[in-house]
Amino acid sequence: xxxxxxxxxxxxxxxxxxxxxxxxxxxxxxxxxxxxxxxxxxxxxxxxxxxxxxxxxxxxxxxxxxxxxxxxxxxxxxxxxxxxxxxxxxxxxxxxxxxxxxxxxxxxxxxxxxxxxxxxxxxxxxxxxxxxxxxxxxxxxxxxxxxxxxxxxxxxxxxxxxxxxxxxxxxxxxxxxxxxxxxxxxxxxxxxxxxxx
Length: 197
Hints:
With 197 residues, the protein is an alpha+beta fold. It has 2 domains: 82 residues, no CATH class; 111 residues, no CATH class. The chain contains 3 helices and 6 strands; from the N terminus they run αββαββββα. The two termini are 31 Å apart.
């Protein structure tokens, strides 16, 4: 699919309903979190919330540098003494959620660790599997500088969400593309081999 052809949800008959739903859900979540934080279990309770794609950004994709908004989902954690490190503006994905949450819940045993802990400082040289990138089933990839279609350098577009240091120019990174193509192939193989069982 060529997502560049879709200009976003722009008609009021659907846009208003989506925004009303978003506001209703965030109000309820905010009320729940405030009750927990003001209650007797506040120091021992962890609340994590995530949401669906798109709702905050309907109609904002016409400009290619904002197309990353299609793929973003909120991931928010509330807990006593939690602090957010330097990864707050870096791309992340669902694979990072449990790697972040399990240590907070006291889980120290072995488990499949396929992401990075978003509350820890970002590694200077992250291993390829846990680099701050997000990949989508359509083959779109996002790093701190931009988005592109796997294997297609000419589709790279700088995003307005750039978290790259100012001295870094926004350009296609062939190594990121190679590593994400390898990860995509590994994930595909994993799914196919699991289905054969």
